[in-house]
Inverse folding.
């Protein structure tokens, strides 16, 4: 078992099958699979999982969201929370960009996602990365600078590991997540891989192939974390734990005279939208830890 921390959180790396994918032109059809019923191993009841949506507003209210499904997605996303924060990206060609990763708990409350945004990236301006429990697949909804949409799915091609770095007191997160389109659009198929080299460095690889030919590398973007590290180094942040993601809190929010930590702007927005929901979950979690 591999224990991981997002910016400090702990979880177990999910087991996912070999990569499969779907294009955005068939996004509605591909997400139908994520709505299929899946039997709970603990209750024997059927439940449905909802796919990620790209819209700014959610069609799933906090009351309607299945908490079991939401926790399943969040647990599978824990290995990737090391991505949170501001980065400096150096492409093989083109303009240096400044990508940012933040949480999105609002676009679809049943489908938390890590959102990638970059104003200068020549290939990927925005991406929503989430996990589909019904398919045991990660999904990346990709928006190009031209506004085109691509939907990629996949899994870890290198497992999540926390290994000793130059500073033996700090573990370094490593993994490789590879996602690809299942159905080529106009005979063209794209593949994207995120390879975490260490807590403060990851590589974004973008490949494309035409027809049934081999993938050709379109760009490799070496990315270094900007400023203070959000990287994992401890297993418990105490009261500085993010009330939403359980990562390391970097700023505070307040409700009824009490302050709570959050780790990013996405978690801040989720808290401000429905503070009582997240405070109740936080208190329940603390009580469970005392048992």
């Amino acid at each position: 078992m591999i224990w991981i921390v997002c910016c400090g959180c702990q979880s177990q790396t999910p087991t996912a099958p070999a990569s499969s994918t779907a294009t955005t032109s068939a996004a509605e059809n591909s997400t139908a699979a994520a709505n299929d019923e899946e039997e709970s191993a603990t209750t024997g009841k059927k439940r449905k999982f909802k796919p990620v949506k790209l819209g700014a507003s959610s069609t799933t209210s906090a009351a309607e969201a299945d908490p079991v499904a939401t926790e399943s997605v969040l647990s599978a996303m824990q290995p990737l929370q090391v991505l949170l924060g501001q980065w400096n990206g150096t492409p093989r060609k083109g303009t240096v960009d400044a990508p940012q990763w933040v949480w999105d708990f609002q676009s679809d409350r049943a489908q938390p996602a890590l959102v990638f945004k970059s104003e200068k990236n020549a290939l990927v301006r925005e991406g929503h990365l989430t996990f589909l429990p019904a398919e045991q697949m990660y999904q990346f909804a990709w928006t190009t600078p031209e506004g085109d949409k691509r939907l990629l799915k996949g899994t870890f091609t290198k497992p999540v590991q926390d290994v000793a770095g130059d500073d033996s007191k700090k573990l370094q997160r490593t993994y490789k997540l590879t996602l690809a389109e299942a159905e080529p659009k106009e005979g063209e198929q794209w593949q994207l891989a995120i390879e975490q080299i260490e807590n403060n460095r990851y590589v974004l690889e973008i490949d494309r192939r035409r027809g049934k030919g081999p993938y050709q590398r379109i760009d490799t973007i070496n990315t270094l974390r900007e400023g203070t590290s959000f990287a994992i180094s401890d297993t418990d942040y105490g009261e500085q734990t993010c009330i939403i993601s359980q990562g390391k809190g970097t700023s505070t929010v307040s409700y009824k005279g009490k302050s709570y930590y959050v780790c990013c702007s996405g978690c801040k927005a989720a808290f401000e939208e429905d503070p009582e929901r997240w405070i109740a979950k936080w208190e329940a979690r603390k009580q469970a830890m005392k048992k």
Summary: Residues 1-59, 228-234 have pLDDT under 50 and may be disordered.
